[in-house]
Amino acid sequence: MSSFKYHVLMSSETVKTYVLTKTNIFAPDAILEVTEIGDGNINYVFLVKEEKTGKSVVVKQADTLLRSSGRPLDINRSRIEADILRIQYELVPEFVPEVYHYDDTMAALIMEDISAYQNLRYELEKKRMFPHLAKDISVFLVETLLSTTDLIWDRHDKKRKVAHFVNVEMCDISEDLVFTEPYNDYKQRNVILEDNQSFVESYVYSNQVLLKEVGVLRNNYMNNAQSLIHGDLHSGSIFINDEGLKVIDPEFAFYGPMGYDIGNVLAHLMFPLAKNDYFETDSSFKEWLEETISSLYEFVKDGLKQKMAAAITLELYNNEAFINEYVADVMVDTLGYLGTEVIRRVIGDSKVKEISQSPVGDKRLEMERVLLRLGIDLVTHRQDYQSGQDILKGYKQAKQKERGVTSETSR
């Protein structure tokens, strides 16, 4: 077993041998404690720690089967994750865990332990506020996304990277769960409260304008090899503390539209905002969330422009008119993908806790309808949103429409 010449799922005991065999982080006679810490459906994650020295690493191994259903999975996603983490670490080492070892046979990564950071999803549940979140995640987004485009990266190398990061199975999952099933339920997996069924039928399934625009966004997701994107950048993939943050789990990575990552981050700040409004009103938390959403959008938009002006060497691209139009297109994409993420988390079977764990009743019904109204408007009128504040205005207008109040305020 210690030779690790073929893929087999590791236990706590074999993880010890694996780490000692593949790295020199620990002494050969080190006494290691191994704890399984993963709670995902497609990977196994172990914390390996030596109490004597305090040294620790994390081992993440890809499974060949989906835990819940036994569906076969391609473990190539683990290689993709290791490679993008290494690229991102070179670009923004302060925001990405370091990879110490990876091998294709075991489909396992040995990487930096980030136990000093906490899962942002759970921190938001506790109403923890982080003043640096908007700035830090915007720097991560700008640096990792723009630097991997052929505006900055060598165009020949970028083309090779597009092929290297083809991620068929993981993209197939997103193409279905994000852009297909929420709009026709062809696999009969959507989960919709009974009293909202007619709303979804009318405003989503039968909304031809929405369906056309989702088709445009789906096609863009599948064919716009713009940037090396994380592909699943929600609050559960961000670990944070009072000093900084780390971004993990980029196994959905591929070359796609950078607005997809930006929109996903924004969407997963809208959910705690909505839950706070309907169930757990905390004015300070609401104010911080609104400021974070608005600032994040603006930081990314301004950061992209500044980075392009500073880093692009081709004169054809390094002019103000081109930069402004390029960034405007990215932000329009961002708003559309923000909308599709909101819609799919309300309708689809892969929900966020802010929705799935909220008590069923009138407040839950209204919250879901308001989020759907917002998502629909973001998709169908994404060109009309010009700022981070416009996202918040769109949310407020969705609440007004749901409550039968017609707003005369225009963006």
TrEMBL record:
The keyword Lipoprotein does not apply. Pfam families: APH. InterPro entries: Aminoglycoside_PTrfase (IPR002575), Kinase-like_dom_sf (IPR011009), Methylthioribose_kinase (IPR009212), Prot_kinase_dom (IPR000719). SUPFAM superfamilies: Protein kinase-like (PK-like). Residues 31-323 form the Protein kinase domain. GO terms for molecular function: S-methyl-5-thioribose kinase activity. Its EC number is 2.7.1.100. Keywords: ATP-binding, Kinase, Nucleotide-binding, Transferase. The keyword DNA-binding does not apply. It is an enzyme of class 2 (transferase). Belongs to the methylthioribose kinase family. NCBIfam families: MTRK. Homodimer. This is S-methyl-5-thioribose kinase. It comes from Candidatus Vagococcus giribetii.
